[in-house]
Amino acid sequence: xxxxxxxxxxxxxxxxxVLCDINLTxxxxxxxxxxxxxxxxxxTLLRVIAGLEQIDDGTIEMDGVVVNxxxxxxxxxxxxxxxxxxxxxxxxxxxxAFSLELEGLTRVEISDRIDEVFRMLSxxxxxxxxxxxxxxxxxxxxxxxxxxxxxxxxxxFDEPLSNLDAALRMNTRIEIANIHxxxxxxxxxxxxxxxxxxxxxDRIVVMRRGRIEQVGSPLxxxxxxxxxxxxxxxxxxxxxxxxxxxxxxxxxxxxxxxxQHLRLATAGRLKGRILHFERLGSDTxxxxxxxxxxxxxxxxVGQQEFGIDAPVTxxxxxxxxxxxxxxxxxxxxxx
Length: 335
Ligand SMILES: Nc1ncnc2c1ncn2[C@@H]1O[C@H](COP(=O)(O)OP(=O)(O)OP(=O)(O)O)[C@@H](O)[C@H]1O
Description:
Rossmann fold; 2 domains; globular; binds adenosine-5'-triphosphate
């Protein structure tokens, strides 16, 4: 396990300020997921921690030691890339053995470690194959195995499941959660996938334009976001943002309502016309034109039929509404 601490970290690519005043402490053993829009600096953050890029200001400490100038190989971290980055000319076993040979481990130690990882990831039968002879899911497991076999103090995962189909993603997600439970190694994990973020993370870091917007447990961020950006980023379908005038709400410019918190009502505060509806089996998504705000989505439980263009009225509990000012800052209600 490793305690990781980033203090006032800045990173530029030319004029581009890619990481701006990053402050983040990750105690040993924690599973931290980083989310944010494309280009916000997630991968760069992993790369500076791995030592693959230098920072321009601030400090990175591992177990209390500043590692700013420590080369990647000496940082005791292992990174798993979205692209797998396996050596194509080597077999699976050779891919796993490579870094251990560089570390100077004996043949017996290497084969013990590889056997352990093969068991963990059910890879034993593929040991003699080259990466080109494996499916995408199997290659991904080899990439995971290559990180695991090194027994690092910190894993850095950069969208490791993004090339897998939905079923494999779920299986591998469960595998990663199990590995974390078993080994207790700290993990920093970048993803675009909401489900991965919500289900795997002890804490989620939400980034925007090189800055950290909020850090907290998945449900803290979901229930108590500091601003409209975080509120809109987590949750699917996304939170609705409705002009407060339309709802006769005072004290806020914008009211945030999650789709599942809107319900059909004979007398309600939100009136609109049906633009579209989607039958999902378990739920029905209703898309409404409510006038000045963007279309509003309501998630209704069960299977329901509607007429396009029909008028509907929706209502909500005041406790479920989040208030934002015109700049998108959260202004209430205080929790
Ligand atoms: N080697 C590089 N040289 C110059 N600019 C770079 C380099 N790598 C990344 N950038 C820029 O830095 C910014 C952050 O990139 P980064 O890859 O960290 O974003 P990201 O959040 O991981 O994006 P994505 O979700 O699309 O992978 C982007 O504007 C990108 O164009």
